[in-house]
Amino acid sequence: MKLLNLNDGVEAGVMCVEPTLTNDGMDARNLAKAHKGPIVTHLEHLPRGIHETPEERKNHWFVGSVDQGTTSSRFLIFNGEGDPVASHQIEFENLYPKSGWHEHDPMTLLNSVEECIEGAMRKFQRLGFSKNDIRSIGITNQRETTLVWDHETGEPLYNAVVWSDTRTKSLVRDLKAKDGADAIKDFCGLPLSTYPSSVKLLWLIENVEAVKQAYEEGRLAFGTVDTWLIYKLNGGAQAESPVHVTDSTNASRTMFMNIRTLQYDDKLLGFFGIDRTKVHLPKIVPSSDPECFGRIASGALSGVPIAGCLGDQSSALVGQCGFNPGQAKNTYGTGCFLLYNVGTEPVISQYGLLSTVAYDFGQGRAPVYALEGSIAVAGAGVTFLQNNLNFIENAKQINDLAESVPDNGGVVFVTAFSGLFAPYWIDDAKGTLFGITQHTQKGHIARATLEATCFQTKAILDAMEKDSGCKLKLLAVDGGLSNSDLTMQTQADISGIPVDRPAMCETTALGAAIAAGLATGVWSDTTELQEVNRTGRKVFEPKISRKCAEKRFKKWNQAVQMSRGWLQDNDNEDDECDEEVKKA
């Protein structure tokens, strides 16, 4: 065999055989571009008519992953080793029609995903591959965000109400006063708050005429973002057999699903006053399945099966290969979400955490559960400094601004833009800055913004230790804000726990790809994934004393208590007053 030294997009010095077509129509030159390390086709040691070993063939099966988030959509294509080889990302407009309201245009979500698929596929094809090389795709999505559409036409009836939206705060107060409210968490794992899908759907039925009419006429279809995307990517109402499904990780965020049976619970639906005969609820299926999610109906991936679906935080746990009880990950995205694997039996938190489905790979495997701590504002705090206060021109500058000062200068920023989530669950808090003096500079506020996420994570870790009886030894991290060395070092210092960051931080998208790949033979079991995304990880060790860390945390807790009570029962009167001031 003649060996060639390929330098066109391949690591220098990689030795590959002269281009020889495999039985997939790929040649070694193009194959090398999509892989780390040497790619060699060994023709001499194989039986006649066989061109690849099973291990070699697995390396050039690819899996796609839709990652639909709060501020952007992405599509990535991973190889059999879990490395991304092509991707495309689009940011889209977030809508804030009123204070505390947060919406998305449902068609914008769909169009952004379809555009990302087309963009990534163009890059993938330039590497010499085609859709025939993609075994399947997975979908991961922002959770709790609620969509409603006409079951007969497939047309949206209202904007998507985003997970962080707080318009339901008065509705939640009323629900908390109902008989049986205290028992709800034992059935679904979630406390009553503005966060889950249930209260958003109830608000839509009560306040949007088109939704109310569709509900009364039995035409109302409900779903979270995964359900909407799967429905539309399969062709929507025009499909021969419309696909209306969700997986158990997403369904566990609605408050409609019994966390033990993984099916809708009539007691839960009854508590919220939802009549199952009037609303089309998506069928709950495992997170990994070769048939349940259908196939893409059109475009560059027409005919490719959708075989995996996970809510974004569950997907990140899978992408970090957190398959064993006691493993945990923290994703620093728009919000911040810490999941702790508790095994195959749900643990109902006594310390302000959520009980949720981590993943359910089906095929006779038991579902796996997690304790979760949810923080409403993480990267959203950086976006606030950029867009609202013009502190920075782009998010990447936050680190430099924060490092322009040696410390926070006594400033504490409780970033309660949507109240405070776990473990506090304070609905009446609003964003509050403490400790401002004439000495305060932009850098101090930038530091305090980053520290707010770290302090809330510390509070969640403390609650997890109480619930589980075990102290976490290592915290795996991912998400955009995890790229900040300052933030990750601060997290290690405040929590007293080493922080482990992978070199490849696209773990959320990787998790959905893993779910799809497990369903379609790219990987046969999670044991084959032990080395995925393990190279190049960086560990941040705590550098300050526990006495100093606890003193800082005490100051944070003081600020949290002082941020309470900004939202009162007379909010409507406040709104009327605000309108009067505007007119004056």
Automatic annotation (TrEMBL):
One Pfam family it belongs to: FGGY_N
Domain Carbohydrate kinase FGGY N-terminal: 64-319
EC code: 2.7.1.30
Source organism of the structure: Neurospora hispaniola
GO molecular function: ATP binding; glycerol kinase activity
Gene Ontology, cellular component aspect: mitochondrion
Protein name per UniProt: glycerol kinase
Major enzyme class: transferase
Entry keyword annotation includes ATP-binding: yes
Protein family according to the UniProt entry: Belongs to the FGGY kinase family.
Keywords for the protein's UniProt record, in alphabetical order: ATP-binding, Glycerol metabolism, Kinase, Nucleotide-binding, Transferase
One BP annotation, GO: triglyceride metabolic process
PANTHER family noted in UniProt: GLYCEROL KINASE, SUGAR KINASE
Domain Carbohydrate kinase FGGY C-terminal: from-to ranges: 329-519
Pathway where this protein functions: Polyol metabolism; glycerol degradation via glycerol kinase pathway; sn-glycerol 3-phosphate from glycerol: step 1/1
